[in-house]
Each structure stands twice: as structure tokens, then as C-alpha cells.
Amino acid sequence: MRSFSKSKLVALRQCQKRFWLEVHQPQLRKESKLTLASFEQGYQVGNIAQRIYDPAACGHVIDVQAEGFERAFERSAELLRSPATKSVFEAGFSAGGALAFADVMLPIRKKGRRVWRMVEVKSSSSVKDYHLDDIAIQAYIAQSSGIELDSVSLAHIDSSWVYPGNGDYHGLLKEVDLTEHAFSRKAEVQEWIAQAQSTFKKKKAPQVAMGSHCTTPFECGFSEYCSQDLPKPEFPIRWLPRISAETIQELAAEKIDDMRYVSEDLLNDVQQRVKHHTLTDTVFFDAQGAKEDLAEYTFPAYFLDFETIQFAVPIWKGTRPYQQMTFQFSLHILNRNGELKHMEFLDISGKNPSNGFAQALIAACKKQGPVFVYNAGFETTRIKELALRHPALSEQLFAINTRVVDLLPIARTRYYHPTQQGSWSIKKVLPAVVPELSYKELDGVQDGGMAMSAFFEAIKQHTSTTRKTQIEQQLLAYCKLDTYAMVRLWQVFSGRTDLKL
Ligand code: SF4
Question: Which residue's CA is minimally distant from atom 7 of ligand 1?
Fold first, then answer.
């Protein structure tokens, strides 16, 4: 009988077709950047968990990649039998047609017997529904292989915890006892394993229609493969901005997936506008309205954008897991006579850039003039966080927030081009309004996610100086384009085509 890993069984819980493809045609899977980033995050949290649960570093780590499955199972069994073992990480079990590796196994004595406490470590900030299946499978396989489990817990990130520095990560993880739940689902897990065995034997992939299960609870790596032969609507209803899930469901029930067939009664004004200009391939531009929206703002005008990073495992003292940390800004300053200056901040030293960022921002923004941003909530929240983190600078930082003007609502109300496909992200609006500018021309970093990954690579100690310099240039070019894009949007919206920008 073939044995299936816990991750395959979890895939089966999501979709039978996914399971079949994972086993028979894994080469068709294409993981998204988001999925790959979450793997990397899980890896980091796993490493820190070993330090937390084994501060004296006297535990054992099973490395299935290096040891191979057979040896990994043998060595795990030996270690779990040995009275000298203090802790085992990634211990492997195999039984009843399934196999699994436990993140943490800790021995305890109970009624004179040596039993085990199993801890599954997750990089999420709470227990999710799908973790419950994961835990149940894990416990079942361990128990079936003869391990006497006393308890099963899930340790997730405590996002309220503040890193005290010096590599002290005690408190990063919060344990939730799920023993009762894990132990009560034995029959279900057996059923899943039986289902996996029968699905595996099928000659062809089971027929499963695409739906919400393709992205929940995980983004499925076979989405591109599964959707390749589906008829594609010419004007998908997902291009209708902020269309509710309820309306999409109602339309799906009537087999409507193209906005041509969506009744106007179901749409608000903006959605009707998008539908009309998409179907007629025409541009909507309320030039007078946009000009009036911007008329009250004087010079100098500032155009500001931030880049941030979030760490599941904080690296800077005084910061929390998943806290948005600003590491870069770009600022264009436009004077009355059309003179355009550029200022920027980027710290790839690996030290906490927060204070330097706040000081540079205050100095660059001066004291007067509108500060244009695109989607103001993001920048104003980051400025507020900086102000709270640096009380000595808070007055000046809060003063910047009072000057912030958001270009996004103006774009949303006054402009729409069919190539935007229902989105007003600056990446969609810029090439529509200013076709000669494009993010695609940028080398290396072309969006916020790429900026985050590039920064993370740049601050690592082992990254070469040459690579650091290359990343620095790519980040600077990317963020600079973001604020220059805003300048050009402002120019078109305010009707100042007389300025040579
Ligand atoms: S894309 Fe959807 S239907 Fe296709 S295998 Fe994945 S979950 Fe199943």
C-alpha cells in the first residue's frame, strides 16, 4: 500500500483533483509568489521554534532530505524510545498508509510512564479551521505508529508580543491545546486515508469544477492548469469593482460570468460606468471635476510613497510579529515654476531603519504644502505608527498626516480606462493615463511584494556587496517611479500640461 504524507491528505481535504494531480502530475503545479513566501516564513518560524523549545540545544533534529525516509523513520523511533532523549524536531512516523513529521516532540512523565507532548508550529497568528484537520492527521499517524501521545498542541505566532532583542524569542509562540479535538477524529482520518488510496488508483484525475475551494484555505498551485481549457468570458464580471460575493453567486447560479449579460439594476454607478466604458472601449475622464478637486492645493506639492516589510519573526528590538516596518520612501517635490526635485530614503544596513526613516521624512517634507499619496490609509497609518514609536518626533510626524491628500479617490471618481479592468491600483492607472510610463520597464523590482523580498535579501549578512548594490538601485528606481507616476497623474488631472515634467 502506498503511504501518503500529511500534506497530501490536507490537499485531498481541499480537493480530490488536487490530491490526484499532486501524486501523479506534480510537475503541473505552479506555486504563486505568495505561497512561496509563506513556505519561507514557515521555515523561519520552525527554526526559531527549535530554539524556543530547546534552549540548551540538546535536542535532536531529523532531516529527511539528508537521511531519506526510511532512515528518518528508524532514527525517530530510536530517539523516541531512548530515555535520554530531551526533545525531537521533525520526528517522522509512518503507519496505516500515511506518514507525517511532527515539528516538536517533548517527553513528559505521567503515572510513571514516559509519554509525549506533540506541538505543531504554524506561522499564522491564530488557529485556523484547516489546522484542525492537520492536527488530527498528525495525531492519528503518530498514535498508529505506536507513539503514546499525552497531548497535542498548536503553537502559532502571538502578534501582540514585542521582541525584547538579543535573540530572545520566548513569548513569540502561543500554544493552544487541541488534544481533545485531535484525538476525537480518528474515524474521519481513517476515512480520508481510505479516500486517498482509492483516488490514487484512478486512471484519470477526478472531475472537479473550479470554485472557491481553489483558493481556500490555500491557493491551489494547479489553478493555471485547471483553468486552461475553461471558456474565458470576454468581459469577466470580476472586472466590476467591488462586486459583492452575493451578486457573483446569484449570477453564477444563472450561468452569467460576462458583464455584458449583467442587468444594470444590479450595479451601482461606478460599476455601470465600468461596464459601459469596457463594452464601448471608451475612456471616461471628468477633466473639469478632477481639476476642481485639485484646485485648492498650493505649491510646493509633495508626492510621497513608502515601502514596508513584515516579519513573522521580528528581527528588530521593540517590534512585533507582522508589524509593517517602513524601510524606504520616495518623495518628489514640485514647485510653482514646474521645477521637480526628488528625495529618497533607503536603509539596507540591516539595522532598524525606523528612526532614520522618520527623521529623513520630517526633513524632506518640510512644514507646508500638500503631501499627495495614492491610497492614503496606508501611508497615514504608517506615519501614525512611527509617531507612536518615536514620541520625540510625534508632533512633526502627525503634522505631515494633516497635509496628506489622497489621489486615489480622485482617480476613482474622475477617470476610467478599459485597460484598468476594474482596478484603480496605480500599476493599472499609470499606463492608462501616461502610456509612455510603465512598471514593466523596471529591472528586478516591479511591485510591492518584490520590493519586500528584495529588501529581505539585501539585509541578509551573506548577501554579497555587489548584489546589495544591485538591489539598492532596483529599489530606488521602483519607489521613485511610484512617486513620479503620482506627479504625472496630478499633472493630467489638474490640467497642467503646460509643465514639462
Ligand atoms: S485548481 Fe481547483 S479544481 Fe483544480 S486541482 Fe486545484 S483546487 Fe482542484
Answer: 214
pTM for this model (two decimals): 0.90
Q: What atom in ligand 1 is closest to the CA of residue 209?
A: 3
Encode burial over 15-29: b for 16+ CB neighbours within 10 A, e otherwise.
bbbbbbbbbeeeeeb
Instruction: Tell whether the model's pLDDT for residue 38 goes beyond 90.
Output: no
Element (H, E) at 309: strand 301-309
The string of pLDDT tens digits covering residues 214-226 is 998 989 999 999 9
Q: How is 244-291 classified by DSSP, letter by letter?
A: -HHHHHHHHHTT--BGGGS-GGG--HHHHHHHHHHHTT--EE-HHHHH
Atom 2 (ligand 1) nearest CA:
214
- Mutational pocket test of ligand 1: of 208, 215, 216, 218, the residue with most ligand atoms within 8 Å of the beta carbon: 208
Residues 6+ apart with CB under 8 A from 414: 285, 286, 287, 289, 290, 293, 493
Task: Compute the average pLDDT of residues 237-242.
Answer: 94
Residue 234 alpha carbon to ligand 1 centre in Å? 22
Sign of CA dihedral 50, 55, 61, 65: positive
User: What is the predicted pLDDT for the residue at 311?
Assistant: 95
Q: Which helix H or strand E contains 359, and what residues bound it? A: helix 354-365
376 lines ligand 1 (CB under 6 A): no
- Give SS3 for 12: helix
Ligand 1 midpoint to CA 223 (Å)? 6
Task: Using DSSP, state whether 438 is helix, strand or coil.
Answer: coil
Per-residue model confidence (pLDDT) at position 377: 95
The CA distance from 403 to 411, in Å, is 19
Note the Cα 187 to chain centre separation in Å: 35
Q: Which three cell numbers stand for residue 172?
A: 513569540
Mean pLDDT for the stretch of residues 469-496: 96
DSSP for 63-114, please give it.
-HHHH-HHHHHHHHHHHHH-TT---EEEEEEEETTEEEEEEEEEEEEETTEE
Helix (H) / strand (E) containing 480 = helix 465-494
The full set of domains in the chain, from first to last, is 4-201 (3.90.320), 231-268 (no CATH), 288-494 (3.30.420.10)
Q: Average of pLDDT values for 386-397?
A: 97
Could you tell me the pLDDT band of residue 373, with boundaries at 50, 70 and 90? very high
H helix or E strand, kind and range, residue 47: helix 33-53
H-helix segments, 96-218: 129-144, 179-183, 186-201
If you average pLDDT over residues 237-259, what whole number do you get?
90
